[in-house]
Amino acid sequence: MTVDYAAVTARQQVVWGLGDYGRVGSLLTWIGESLVRSLDVHSGERVLDVAAGNGNASLCAARRFAQVLSTDYVPELLQETQRRADADGLALRTEVADAQHLPYDDGAFDVVMSTIGAMFAPDQEAVGRELVRVCRPGGRIGMANWAPDSMIGDMFRAVGRHVPGPVGLVPAVSWGDEARVRALLGDGCTVQSLTRQTCAFRFPSTDACLAYFRTWYGPTMAAFTAAGDEGSVALAAELLAVFAAHDVATDGSLAMDVAYLEVVATKR
Ligand SMILES: C[S@@+](CC[C@H](N)C(=O)[O-])C[C@H]1O[C@@H](n2cnc3c(N)ncnc32)[C@H](O)[C@@H]1O
Questions:
Q1: Ligand 1 centre and the CA of 72: distance in Å?
Q2: Which residues on adjacent β-strands are paired with residue 202?
Q3: Could you tell me the mean pLDDT of each successive run of 10 residues in the chain, 268 residues long?
């Protein structure tokens, strides 16, 4: 079964523009800081952030005085990145770009990175090729990808049971699998490290967490709309159960340590 990548991409682009992704992106600050540190980004380096959202990793690289180009296919998120950069007095540029067809020359960047971003594009082979292509020989490629067995992986599978996605689409969290990420990045680079990390999600309660995602996070909003009134009740119950299963708090609040794979590679 062949997937219509263009149609899926167009649909996903609408979904990521719903709500206010920045409210969720701001919870992932640690992921950007960690990846930029692992990539050892230096002042003056040309850094491309792919599927940058509201600029999580871009801002981290800009704090190191790198020449940052922050890209995403949702223009409103790039505007938010620019506002955040301006508020902190940081220099960066933004540009609309699809992770599957990056409009840049071969080898144009010293560092190419994507935190919890490029993993969502449907044509995973194209993304792997593009991340490597636009990196210069000897440059670094970095990714942070939710792990298949993480809370987010369970959340996506729960949503998929209620609102099935396109047939034949490889799950985004497969980018969090070591063998898969090696295969997708291919022979044009050498994988230097694959590190399992966690991002701390802390909420007042499972109900508060669900309300947060339903209010701000486009994919969750779209899932509830598609599930309809009746389906939404069952979907909500299942998501609450996912949160509860990953909760490590002992004080009645919600504490989830969400696993992801941090990838650092060098271009040959
Ligand atoms: C979970 S957010 C992560 C954003 C950001 N990198 C961060 O760390 O918070 C996923 C982002 O990927 C973007 N995205 C998904 N597919 C994309 C594609 N094919 N091309 C460009 N951006 C894409 C979405 O617009 C969204 O901003």
A1: 6
A2: 255
A3: 92 96 94 98 98 98 98 97 98 98 98 98 98 98 98 97 92 98 97 98 98 96 96 97 98 98 98
